[in-house]
Amino acid sequence: MLPVIAFGEALVDLLSSRLGEPAGDTADAAEVFTPYAGGAPANVAVACARLGVPSRFLGMIGEDPFGDRVAAELAAHGVDTSGVVRTDAARTALAVVHRDAAGERRFTFYRPPAADLLYRLEHLPAGVFAEPSILHVGSNSLTEPEIAETTLSMVEMARRAGCVISVDANLRHGLWAGGTADISLVTRLLDAADLIRLSSEELDDLRADHPRDGWLAERFAAGVKAAVITDGPGAIRLRTVELDEWITPPAVEAVDTTAGGDAFTGGLLAELAAAIPADDAWHRDAALLRRAAAFASRCGAHAVTRPGSYLALPTRGDLGAD
Fold first, then answer.
1. What is the CATH number of domain 40-90+119-312?
2. Could you give the CA distance from residue 165 to residue 11 in angstroms, rounded to a whole number?
3. Sheet with 11-19, edge to edge strand ranges
């Protein structure tokens, strides 16, 4: 089984107790914010660990109480935190999360500045890619020039070492200068991957005026082996050069969708991590990809029925799986 190494932001989600749009009374004392450790790559590391896959998180958090919470919770869920760096040069990032009546979330980020943006190649543990692994990253580690250079260089380093590269588009326009993601830079990161996951909305943002299938064909031409496009509770599209299939996820009543996409990605990587060492042509194994996507959809469906991130991520026991 390949271990999963996730790199990027670890932060604290402050989940509002209020559902729906604010009533306009800023002095509403009934609104309570509950802290949950989160951050998309950290969520994926926890998701894999809870599913029994060796996982490691690489990133930087602040020497502050929120950083203490994140470090403690990562370790408590079985994630290898030996690659987590602490700093007093910046604080741990925060994300205020409001939800609508259907559990769909809206983020307000307190980043930059934030500790995760200060991670550099010199912070990598010695020999981190010495053994085959899956490296998972996302576009939130591209939002400033220095962290973008670190991310792209790390991906190239891992690729040269024979690692499988997984990229989640995870577009958060509010984290970028000017409020709009650098589409060309995000696309460059996607094109360095073996496996990409993106939402239907993100696909439309990234493709601009290109037809969907034409945009995906460009990614495959660049070297991407498999793409998975999710659409909230809608059908999941599984694409390779040879495969184009749709998978219907379980129907559930969502409470909080914050960790749904990361639970899906964690489930997908957990299934592939067990198969890839014995199957170099994993991306041509239609049965494997279908099974992995179906399992991932169960993971995502479970996560959205619970609040927060790490604790919402399922174990195999939660799913009735071996």
1. 3.40.1190.20
2. 23
3. 33-38, 11-19, 94-99, 105-110
**All residues at 6 or more sequence positions from 31 whose CB lies less than 8 Å from its CB, including other chains:** 16, 17, 18
What is the number of alpha carbons within 13 Å of residue 283 lying toward its C-beta? 18
Report residue 314 as tokens: 């399922």
Q: How far apart are CA 319 and CA 313, in angstroms?
A: 10
How do residues 228-252 score in pLDDT, each as one tens digit? 999 999 999 999 999 999 999 999 9
Q: Is 96 exposed, middle or buried (0-12, 13-18, 19+ CB in 10 A)?
A: middle
**Helices (H) then strands (E): counts for the chain:** 8, 13
pLDDT for res 26: 53
pLDDT band for position 29 (50/70/90)? low
Strand 11-19, strand 94-99: pairing:
parallel
Sheet containing strand 4-7, edge to edge, reads 84-87, 55-62, 4-7, 134-138, 164-168, 195-199, 226-230, 236-239, 244-247
Count Cβ neighbours within 10 Å for each residue of 294-307 and write b for 16 or more, e otherwise.
bbbbbbbbbbbbbb
- Looking at this protein, which amino acid is placed at residue 131? E
Q: Which residue has the tokens 């659409």?
A: 231
Domain boundaries, the chain: 40-90+119-312
- 113 prior amide bond cis, ω within 30: yes
Residue 60 backbone dihedrals phi, psi, to 5 degrees: -125, 135
Q: Which of 218, 240, 251, 221 is nearest to 292 (CA)?
A: 240
Residues with Cβ within 8 Å of residue 40, at least 6 apart in sequence: 8, 9, 138, 140, 168, 170, 261, 262
